[in-house]
Amino acid sequence: MSEPLEQIRPALDQIEARWDDPRTERTLAALHRRRAARRRRGVALGAGAALALAAGASVMVASRAPHAADSQPVAAGAARIAEPEGRRVDFADGSHVVLLDAAASIVVDAVSPAALAVRMPAGTARFEVVPNANRAFEVSAGEVVVQVLGTSFELIRDGARTHVQVLRGRVAVRWGAASTELAAGESGWFPRSARPTAAEESARADAAATSGSTPRKRTGAASAGWREHAEEGDFGRAYELLQRAEQRVADDVEELLLAADAARLSGHPAQAVPFLRRVIDRHDGDPRASLAAFTLGGVLMNQLGRPREAEAAYARARSLTLSTALAQDAVARQVEAAHRAGDTARARSLALEYLERYPTGRRVNAVRRFGGLE
Amino acid sequence: MAALRPRAPHLRVLGGFEDGPASAVIDASDVDALYRRYAPYVAAVAIRILGRDHELDDLIQDAFLNALRGLRDLREPAAIKGWLARITVRLAIRRLRQRRVRQALHLEPAVFDYETLAAPAATPEQRALIARLYRVLDALPAADRAVWVLRHVQGEQLQQIPELCGCSLSTAQRRLRRAQAAVEEGLAHE
Does any CB of chain A come closer than 8 Å to the CB of residue B117? Predict the structure, then answer.
């Protein structure tokens, strides 16, 4: 080996992956989710497909990419993973990202005057984006791409799926060939669930027969139609078809949640409520029931102006199985809902509970404000 | 490597000496046990080729998804570690090529802070050296880079590299010579 390599040799032994037991467990859980998703979809998404997705995302951004002369590749060190909880990543235009849990990480893929591309491999983060009509701000989380139009929103990455919650403004969400827009107060999980396999349909029918509930039928063209449109993100058409169909929605968690999405994301939030309540009341053993309750809270508080019912929904979400991130959010939103309902004593009590449970929580300031503790 | 024994419906993997006690036996149908045992090794191989920690999670999951799909066809249990390494190297090379395309589209930074690659115990000088080396490696073709890293960073024997990279020995030697010349020249001018 020549002299320069000899000089480097001792340093080579210092190259190591930051791999520990928690990371093993976290990635193992993600592996299981990906395997389960593959089984559900019956599609082998190998590394080639992952590359294809990445290439697809590249083309989407490239189609809007600035002229080469305008493009300024990101400076050395500007692209990094930021991991510590509560860390804030600031951009030159005043936009910033707050990492909301320990798993959160952000990678800045590209910066130019016309586009900013950020990737979120894992965790929960809040994005505060300064409006700029001349600059596209995109966040990719797996195959989900969120295009920001000057807004505030939160992302929760859970394996292959991502939860988008818009706090202010609007965002466009793309996954595969489908897309939709979300406005303030709206949220959803993306990509939309794939159509169940025949085996899953059969298993569901068996389960329904055993439990005595109505087995799911997908023989009606109209029923299949609304679902198809909803999965493609065309919620307006989906809701329209849903209104016409005779056998509208089966008593199945996935279908009920999809129907709720079709209603609330097409501008009919009140019609989403019964679907969400059915999930909570009839399927409270399903892990998705907590998400249904959380979503119901958002619909009631932000879209329907019914904070007292919203507070009850958030309380119900907490009583069901919630992820740590959502559990913390649920308490904070309970505080806000109680405040909006005029129940100051309740708001204060819940705020104290939040501060005791999450003394360094990401919503401490809002909780103090709504709880009357400032 | 080849069919040394009848195909076993439930493969049992005997740990090699470097994996721990030889008596440690893992049922290959136990995905969790396989992952916990070999993910750190796969991560060590991948980080040395890629140099970027944030790319590890997805790549390692891809490696195990690939491996699990073909597990039933693996007839020599002791080969599982090498098999995982081959998959990892192949995926890492693919990832490096993908990175180059993304850089060309300005979707990926052309320059990366490789000082974070060093272990916490590394001295500032070693961090700087590692960063210099990986900046030089960034300029190499992906396959050349992988061969060089496997030989000089991972410490693999030259005879093992063709198997890991899926090429002939002469090809591996050619890539290694080319990469070494480029690294030496790059370090001299960095």
Answer: yes
Both tokens assigned to A13: 């032994």
3.40.50.1110, 3.50.50.60, 1.10.10.10, 3.40.50.2000: CATH of B113-190: 1.10.10.10
Computed over every residue of chain A, the mean pLDDT equals 71
Question: What span, in angstroms and rounded, lies between the C-alpha atoms of B80 and B11?
Answer: 10
pTM tops 0.90, yes or no: no
Give me the residue from A18, A46, A79 closest to B109, CB to CB. A79
Q: What is the pLDDT of residue A48?
A: 34
Interface of A with B in 47-66 (CB under 8 A): 47, 50-51, 54-55, 57-58, 61-62, 65
Q: What is the four-CA torsion angle of A189, A194, A196, A199, rounded to 10 degrees?
A: -120
- Please tell me the class of the A73-190 domain: mainly beta
CB contact under 8 A, A77 and B111: yes
Q: What average pLDDT does the segment A333-344 reach?
A: 91
Residue with the bigger pLDDT between A27 and A93: it is A27
Neighbours of A329 (CB within 10 A): 26
Q: In chain B, what residues touch A121 (CB-CB under 8 Å)?
A: 54, 57-58
- Please list the ranges in chain B whose pLDDT falls under 70: 1-29, 72-78, 190
